[in-house]
């Protein structure tokens, strides 16, 4: 397992820094985000250090994502959340501030609960031909 001795999340995973853990096993740690965007806001991290989704090995991703539903359901049961945002930021432009892959589980309690994920759709910005070409080009990179 790869770790980075300068990474705050690696230090949390190794219990060098205290956290409010909600789950831990051999591969993953989940703990309450100190910012608590909404009650129960939890971060799920692999113990293996990877900067973000671009550097995340497939087997580590499988470890993390296999556990997300169990943790999310526990948060929902405890908080009474009626929804959940599941997100990860990659790179500064996307809002990443800690460069260790992590998933935010943000319980939702209504439209006025303090969190809003909003984007502006561009339905008319791309023609069917442009979307077909884009899909084909992405497919060829997989």
Protein model, in words:
By secondary structure, the protein is an alpha+beta fold. The protein has a single domain, classed as HIT family, subunit A (2-Layer Sandwich). The chain has three helices and five strands. A five-stranded antiparallel beta sheet has the order 1-2-3-5-4, with helices on one face. It is globular and about 50 Å long. The protein starts with 7 loop residues before the first helix and ends with a helix. The model has no long low-confidence stretch (mean pLDDT 94).
Strand order of the largest sheet: 1-2-3-5-4
CA-atom Rg in angstroms: 17 Å
Structural class: alpha+beta
Characterize the overall form: globular
Order of helices and strands: HEEEHEEH
What fraction strand?
A: 15-25%
Number of helices, counting only DSSP H or I runs of 4 residues or more = 3
What CATH architecture do you see? Answer: 2-Layer Sandwich
Motif (Histidine triad motif): 100-104
Organism: Exiguobacterium aestuarii
EC number: 2.1.1.-
Domain HIT: 8-115
Summarize this entry quickly.
The protein is 30% helix and 18% strand.
Please give a handful of descriptors for the protein shown.
single chain, 142 residues, alpha+beta, HIT family, subunit A, 5-stranded antiparallel β-sheet, 5 strands, 30% helix, 18% strand
List the helices and strands and how they pair.
Elements: H1 8-13, E1 21-24, E2 28-32, E3 42-46, H2 58-79, E4 83-87, E5 103-108, H3 128-141
Antiparallel strand pairs: 1-2, 2-3, 3-5, 4-5
């Amino acid at each position: 397992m790869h770790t980075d001795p300068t990474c705050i999340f690696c230090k949390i995973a190794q219990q060098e820094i205290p956290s409010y853990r909600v789950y831990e096993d051999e591969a993953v740690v989940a703990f309450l985000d100190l910012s608590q965007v909404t009650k129960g806001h939890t971060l799920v991290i692999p113990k293996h250090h990877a900067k973000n989704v671009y550097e995340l090995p497939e087997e580590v991703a499988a470890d993390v994502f296999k556990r997300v539903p169990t943790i999310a359901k526990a948060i929902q049961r405890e908080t009474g959340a009626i929804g959940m945002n599941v997100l990860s930021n990659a790179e500064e432009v996307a809002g990443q501030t800690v460069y260790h892959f992590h998933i935010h589980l943000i319980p939702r309690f209504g439209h006025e609960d303090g969190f809003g994920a909003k984007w502006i759709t561009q339905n008319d910005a791309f023609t069917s031909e442009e979307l077909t070409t884009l899909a084909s080009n992405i497919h060829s990179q997989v």
